[in-house]
Amino acid sequence: MANKGPAYGMSRDVQSKIEKKYDDELEDRLVEWIVAQCGSEVGRPDRGRLGFQVWLKNGIVLSHLVNSLYPSGSKPVKIPDSPPTMVFKQMEQISQFLKAAEDYGVVKTDIFQTVDLFEAKDMAAVQRTLMALGSLAVTKNDGNYHGDPNWFMKKAQEHKREFTDSQLKEGKNIIGLQMGTNKGASQAGMSYGRPRQIIS
């Protein structure tokens, strides 16, 4: 991984826009949830984007988080005994979390890239992924979610309707309002401007 200097011009503008999307209040809520979900052994980060990034950077806290959403005995991410110190091992741990989050049900568009967290490129994307994971956990309501359910929005759930054959046949006899009506309509008295003059 190359050391990068400061960004200039358009790159700097883009990076500053990305950084403005980071939400400090959301960070507080996510930290509270992660500590409630995993227990106090995960610790707490220093306040701010950098502290949050350093806390999650090696992937161990994220792995504990996603494992806590599964019943005991079926943990999707293997957590090493000691936190990884080598860069590629830390990135691999983050990748395992991302795979487990996708298997849990987080859609691909809500999942951050490893570099977004590891190099702090887009910490707002990390927040979005954690929000999506929390929303899914609250929605599933399977007893594995810990914390205040009001911290996350429940996802919309399918409400399937069943109709009998007789109900479906009755529906074919009704003209829906979307099809319009021609009650009382005729073309009497309609004119479209002057008639065409044919001169011979």
From TrEMBL:
What this protein is called in its record is Transgelin
What's one Pfam family here? CH
Query: What's the superkingdom here?
Result: Eukaryota
* Keywords of the record: Acetylation, Cytoplasm, Muscle protein
* Stretches assigned to the Calponin-homology (CH) domain: 24-137
Annotated Gene Ontology cellular components are:
cytoplasm
PROSITE patterns, per the entry: CALPONIN_1 (PS01052), CALPONIN_2 (PS51122), CH (PS50021)
- Tagged with keyword Cytoplasm: yes
Does Glycoprotein count among this protein's keywords? Answer: no
- Name the family the entry cites: Belongs to the calponin family.
Originating gene: Tagln
